[in-house]
Amino acid sequence: MFTLIISALFIISVTGLLIILTTKNDKLKTLQLSVNKLKRSLDEMDEQAKLIIRTDIELNKTQEELDKKINGLYALQRLSRAISTTLEENQIFRMIDSSNIDELGFEKTISFLWSERDKRFILTFNIGYSQDEEDLIQASIDLNKDFYLNLIHQKKTLSSNSLADQSFKNKIKSIFRVASFVISPILPKEGRVGFIFLGTENPDMAPSEGDEELVTILANQIGQALENAKLFEKTWKAQQELEKKVEERTQELKHALNEVNIVSKRKSEFISAVSHELRTPLTSIKGYASILLAGKLGELPEEVRLRLDKINKHSDELVNLVNDLLDISRIESGRVTMRLESQNLRAIFTDITDLFFVQFKEKGIELSSKIDDNASDVTADAGQLKRVFINLVSNAAKFVPLKDGKIKVSAYKVGKFIQVDITDNGCGIPEDARERIFEEFYRVENAINDQVKGTGLGLALVKHIIEAHGGRIWVTSKLGVGSTFSFTLPTER
Amino acid sequence: MSDTDNINVGIGLSTEKDIGKAVKEAMQQARTTIYKEAIDLALVFSSTEYASPHTTSLISNLIGSAPVIGCSGAAIISNKGIFRSALGLMLLSFPKTVFLNSAHIQNIHSKTALTSGEELGEKLLHGFKGGRRDFGLFFTDGLIEEESNLILGLQEKLGTSFPIIGASASDNLKFEKTYTYYNQDISNDSACGIIWGGKLNFGWGIKHGWKPLGKPRTITKSKSNVVYEIDGLPATKIYEEYFSRNIEGLRKELKRISTFYPIGIYLRDEEEYLLRNIHLIENSGALVFQGNVPEGSEVRLMIGTKESCLNATEQACEQAKNWLPGKNLSFALVFDSISRYLLLGRRAIKEIEIINTELNNIPILGLYTYGEQAPLKATNYQGRAHNHNQTITILGVEG
To answer: How far is it, in rounded angstroms, from Cα B237 to Cα B190?
Structure first.
C-alpha cells in the first residue's frame, strides 16, 4: 500500500515536472524567439545607423564646404568694402587682416608689386611670414621673376591644383612653406602691377575652383583700389596745382582791384574838386546873367536878351550836371550817409504827382499808381528816394508818346523787400543797352536821345542811391511796347 | 587677499599682433573693470602666436607677485565672441577668506602621466595652507598621451572630496605644439594647477549633446587609451563598417570622423556617455583615443548635430547655475571642445550668445580645448573627475 502511494506520488511528481519542463521549454522557446527578434532588430538598427552615418558624413562635408564658401564670401565682402574705401596705396594692403584671410581658408598671404625702376618685385605686405621667410621668398621671386611677370602678362590665377609644372609647384610650396596655394595677378589700369599669394599649411584645405575665383576677385579689388588710389593722387595733385593757381590769380586780382580802387578814389576826388571849381564860376556867370536879364544895368536889346537866356539855360544844365557828378562822387566815396527812416510810399508818390502835374498835363501823360497796403512803408532816405522817383519818372516821360503817354508806379511786398515797378509805354530799350544804361555817361542811341539833352548820369545816380539803401535795380523792356524799371528797398533797417 | 567679501574680476582681450601692445591693451581693459589694486591671480588664455615667455613675463611684471596660470587655445572665448588670434586675460582679487596655491610640472614625457599627476598633486598640497580644500583648476598640454592618467594621478594625491575642473591646451588645429603658462614660464609637455580653499562658492556644468547610434559594443582588448579589439575584432573594423572605408580612407578623414563620430563609453548611473575622440589609427587596426577606454566597457558610436550641441550648451549653463540657486555668479570660465567649434561651423558664435543669455552677461573668458576635465554628473557630484572630449564645460563662481 505504502509502495503504491509512493509510486503514485512519484508518477504525479514526474508528470508535474514534465508539465513544468514543457511549460518552461515553451517559455524558453518564446524568450529565444524574442532574443532573436531583438538581435535582428539591433542588427537592422545597426545597418540603419550605418546608412545614417554615411549620409551624415556626406552632409557634414557639404555643409563644411558651404560654410567655407559663405565665410569666404563674407570675408571677401568685408575686405572689398575696406579696400574700396581706401585711397592711399599703403593703406590698401593694411586693410587685409589675418581674420579675413583665415575665413578665406588660408593662413598666409604675401603680395608684391613690380617696380619698373628697380626691375624687380617689391614686397607690399605679408601675413604669417617672419623676416627670414620674407627674405627667402623675396630671393626666390627675384630668381624666378619671369614666371611671375608671365602670370601677370597672362592675367591668369594659378593654384597648387592647376599649376602643371610639378617641380615648380613643389618649389613654391617649399619656399612659401605651404601645403597648397593660390596666386593671382593684381592688374590696375594705372600704376604698378603685381600679384597676391595666399597659402595654407593645412593639407586638408586644398583650394577648390571656388577658392581660385574668390582670390581672383580679391586681386581684382586690390587692382581697382590701386587704380583709384593712383587716380585720386593725380586728381589731388591737379587740385593742388589748381588751388595754387587760383591763389596766385586771386592775389593778382586783389592787387588790381586795389589799384582800381585807388584810381576810382582819385577819379572821385578829381570830379569832386573839378565840380567844386566849376560851380563857383558858374554861380558868378548865372548871377551876372540874371542881373543883366533883370535890366538892372539898363534895358537890353532883344538880341542880347535872347543870348543871355541861352547863357542862363545852359548854366542851369551845367549846374545840374555838376550837382549830379558831385552826388555820385559823394555816394561812391561814402561821404553821403543815407538817413534811413520809415517812409510812406503813397505820400512820396503824391509829392511826385504834384511835381509833374502841370508838365504831364501839357504833354498828355497819364501817371497812375497801385501801391499795395502792405507795401506802403519802406525804410529809406526821403530826399534820396524822391530823387530816384523824379529821375525814373522824368526819364520815362521823355520816351512815352505825346498825348498818349502812360506811366504807372506799382509797389508790392517781396519777402523782406518792397519792390517798386515804374512802367511806361515808351519806345523800349534795346537788349544790348539794358545792362549798360546804369553806367555813368552812357546814353542809348536813339532819335529821342538825340533830340532830348541829358547828362547820362541820372540812372547811374539812381543805381548808387538804391544800392546805398541795400536794394537793387534792374530794367525789363520790349522794343515798341515799353520799359519797366524795378527796384527794391528793405522794409526794415 | 582683500578685506572685502567680494570676488573682484577684470577681463581684457586684445587682438593686437604685437605682444607688448596686446598685453598692455588686455591689462588696461582688465584694470578698468577690477577696482582693486592688489591682484591675487591672473588667468591667461591665448592663441599660439602669443605663447611666448615675453607674454607671461610682461603680465607677471605688471601684476606683482600673484600667480599667472593658463594655456594656449585654438581660439579664445569672451562675451564679445570667438577670436582665432587673441590674448585673453582675467585678473582676480579674492576676499581674505579664500586661500589658494598653484604649482606646475614639466617633462611629463620623461615620466608617466600617472606619476606626473601625482607630482603635481603633491606640489599643490605642499604649498597649500588654507585648511579644507574646496576646488581645483587644472591645465595641461593637450597633446600628451594618457591624459586620463594624469588626472587620475592628481586625484590620487588630492583625493576625490572636491571637484577638479580643467582644460587641455590646444593649438591652431595643427596638433603640433600646445602650451601651458605658469608665472613667467611657458612650456610644452607640462601641466599646471591651482587649488582653492575657504569661502569660494562655485558651480559647474558639463554637457556634450552627442547621442548613441547603432548597437552597443564591448571593448574586448585595450590598454589605457589604446583600443585593440571591439567585440573580438580589430578596433578599426567598427569604423570601417560604419563608414564603408578602409584604414587609409579612415586616416584621410580622421579629423572629421574623430570630431563628428566619437565613441561613447556607457557609465552606469551617469546621464551621458563619456566621449572619446580617435587620435590615431595604427596599422595593426588599433585605435588610439584621446583618453582612457577601459577593457570591458560598453561603447556606442556617437553622432552629434548642431541643434543637440547647442541644447547641450544651454543645459551646461543650467547645471552651473543650479549649484548656486538664488545667487548671482560674478564670472565664468568656459572650456569648449574644438570639436564643437568644427561641428557648429558658422553657428559656433551661437554658443557664446546662449552662454551670455543664460548667465545674464556676466564676464566670461575661455578657450577651445583638446580635452576637458570635470566630474561627469554635475547635478549629483561623485568626486571622480573624468577626461572628456567634445564637451562644453562651464565653471561659474559666485562672489
So the answer is: 34
**Cβ contact A385:A345 at 8 Å:** no
Burial class (CB in 10 A: 0-12, 13-18, 19+), A37: exposed
Complex ipTM value: 0.78
Q: Is A463 helix (H, G, I), strand (E, B) or coil?
A: helix
- Between CA A149 and CA A116 the distance in angstroms is 12
Q: B241, A50: Cβ pair inside 8 Å?
A: yes
Q: What is the least distance, in Å, from the CA of A106 to any CA of chain B?
A: 12
A202–B contact, CB cutoff 8 A: yes
Among B175, B110, B111, B165, residue whose Cα is nearest residue B141: B175
Q: Kindly list the residues from chain B whose CB atom is less than 8 angstroms away from the CB atom of residue A98.
A: 17, 84-85
Residue pLDDT tens, chain B, 399 long = 555 568 899 999 999 889 999 999 999 999 988 877 789 999 999 999 999 999 999 999 999 899 999 999 999 999 999 998 899 999 999 988 888 999 999 999 999 899 999 999 999 998 787 578 889 999 999 998 788 889 999 999 988 888 899 999 999 887 889 999 999 999 999 999 999 988 888 999 999 999 999 899 999 999 988 999 999 999 999 899 999 999 999 998 888 898 889 999 998 777 789 999 998 999 999 999 988 899 999 999 999 989 999 999 999 999 999 988 888 899 999 999 999 998 888 889 999 999 999 999 999 999 999 999 998 764 454 577 888 989 999 999 987
- In the block, residue with C-alpha cell 569660494: B200
Write the CB contacts of A481 (distance below 8 Å, at least 6 apart in sequence).
Answer: A425, A428
Residues 6+ apart with CB under 8 A from A119: none
d(CA A83, CA A96) in angstroms, rounded, equals 8
Interface test with chain B among A39, A41, A43, A57, by most B beta carbons within 10 Å: A57
Residue from the list A42, A61, A70 with its beta carbon closest to the beta carbon of B215? A42
As given in the structure block, the three cell numbers for residue A36 are 532573436
Q: Give the three-class secondary structure for A250.
A: helix
Contact present, B376 and B338 (Cβ < 8 Å):
no
Q: Point out which residues pair with A406 in neighbouring strands.
A: A366
Of B242, B301, B345, the CB nearest to A63: B345
CB B346 to CB A70 under 8 A?
yes
| Interface touch A46/B260, C-beta < 8 Å | no
Instruction: Indicate the residue of B84, B214, B345 with minimum beta-carbon distance to A45.
Output: B214
Note the residue count of chain B: 399
Inter-chain residue contact B260 with A99, CB threshold 8 Å: no
Angle CA(A124)–CA(A130)–CA(A133) in degrees, nearest 5?
A: 85
A77 CB contacts (<8 Å, ≥6 apart)? none
The three-class DSSP label of residue B394 is: strand
Where does B187-293 have alpha helices with state H?
236-243, 247-252, 254-260
Minimal CA separation from A220 to chain B, in Å: 27
Size of interface A-B (CB pairs under 8 A): 59
- Interface residue ranges in chain B relative to chain A, Cβ cutoff 8 Å: 15, 17, 84-85, 172-174, 213-215, 241-244, 253, 255-257, 260-261, 301, 303, 343, 345-346
Q: Which has the closest alpha carbon to B302: B327, B331, B337?
A: B337
Q: Which of A65, A137, A154 is nearest to A162 (CA)?
A: A154
**How big is chain A, counted in residues?**
493
Radius of gyration of chain B (CA): 20
Distances (CA, A) of B335 to B36, B167, B248: 27, 6, 32
Amino acid identity of residue A166, one-letter, is: Q
Sole residue written with cell 582675467: B90
CB B143 within 8 A of CB B191: no
DSSP labels, A57-83: HHHHHHHHHHHHHHHHHHHHHHHHHHH
Provide φ and ψ at B330, rounded to 5°.
-100, -25
